[in-house]
Write a structure and sequence with these properties.
By secondary structure, the chain is an all-alpha fold. The chain is built from two helices and no strands. The longest helix is centred in the last third of the chain and has 17 residues.
């Protein structure tokens, strides 16, 4: 008797559960990226400092 009750409960749950629908949006998805690339500036600055130190050792004693 218990098996029939469990089967009936499972069937009832399956019939009454909601339906999930996935659909594409009406308008396209827009992703805005604001990225600042500062790597070249840092590298150039580092090279300038290295040149300054090499050309003026008296300013930067070790």
């Amino acid at each position: 008797m218990k098996r029939t009750h469990l089967a009936a409960a499972a069937l009832l749950a399956a019939l009454t559960s909601g339906c999930v629908q996935v659909s594409a949006p009406e308008e396209p998805i827009v992703i805005e990226l604001n990225i600042n690339v500062a790597q070249t500036v840092d590298v150039n600055l580092q090279e300038d400092v290295e040149n300054l130190i090499e050309n003026n050792p008296e300013l930067f004693p070790e």
